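Journal club prep — side note

Before the paper discussion, L.F. wants everyone to see what a predicted structure for a comparable chain looks like in token form. Sequence:
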Amino acid sequence: MVTPHIDRGQPSSVNPRVCRFGPFRLTAATRSLFSGERRVDLPPRYFDLLLLLLENRERVVTKDDFYEQVWKDEIVTEGAIAQGVRFLRRALDDDARNPRFIRTVAKFGYQWIKEVEGPVEETAPTSDSDSSITKGPPENDAAESGPSGAIDGPVSTRDVPFAREIAAAFRIALGRYASASLGSALSGALAGSLGALLLMASSSVSNPLRVTVVLALLGFVIGGLGGLGVGFGLSFAESLIRQDRALLLALAGGISGSLLGGLAHALFAQSIAALFGRTPISFGGAYEGAWIGTFTGFGYGLATDSLTLAAPRERERLRVVALSALFAALGAALGSVLGARFSATSVDAIAALFRGSELSLTSLGSWMGESSFGRSSRIVLSACEGLFFGAGLVYGLTRRPGNA
């Protein structure tokens, strides 16, 4: 393999934000790239990728550099970087096997090798009709384009068939749903523990430790199962969608929540019937999963409207979590008004099967001025459940690899 000549010029004195390389000239302030009088249009993310290569042309730009500076608030696969470089090579008429602009450093990154001159005077084409616009496929951060270092030829939407996008989305979902499920499980355990404290404060419980452990365990299991379904659905969907994010994530969350809720309902009902010979009159399932999944997905989509696979940092992450949790609480409250039976209501229904059960939530009605576990109590507790569920799930879903 022949190592290409790296044409340095005088890079230390050149501002890569207003520069010329080969027949191209670039102005970062207007985010414009021209080849002669012809405008070369790049998707915003790929323009940033080009700038990063130009500004760091004295060294190899690593994959971590791309993650931190181009996709800093998103989780993407290595295929997104590979596809971005392929797109740039097509736009610059470059060849991976005999590069003039971008050199591949196998399993490590990429380096700009063309001499950069500047500053240059910006001259726009006389009219749009006179300029040939180089267009390409829309940004597709989730698509796999093969291993880094094996990049050649132009890229088009035909190079990333729908089946490959589905496979990539499935792999991404497998890598992210576990933390979402764990987050919702832990928040469910916390909600169950707080519920036990309320129950103990409103009535005489003979074995507080047992009640706390049981309710925390139920919260952990129910929250984890809900997060398993909704988390996978949201992660899978957001790696595919490119527009109408909030609405499509709401749809994905509702469908996945309903499917998992229905499956859990059926399995639990059969287990209770096999063990005790009877089943609770009603407890949560597909209907409840649809409510909580839809509203959590919609809130998450609104909060991350400008991102693809969201992994915001610090305060931004807390904002995303808070907005998602508020929508999840709203969905649970509305669902309860319309007959949905979330965890607390389901626990009360199960406890009603067994006389003297300490898990009966009848006494909690006193906190709402009710003589039993009535409508107002159910709505308030359902909203609290939604708040905890949404916060835990989205906090886990937005986890950045290697970070909490």
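L.F.'s comment for the group: The CA atoms of residues 20 and 358 lie 77 Å apart. Keep this in mind when we get to the figures.
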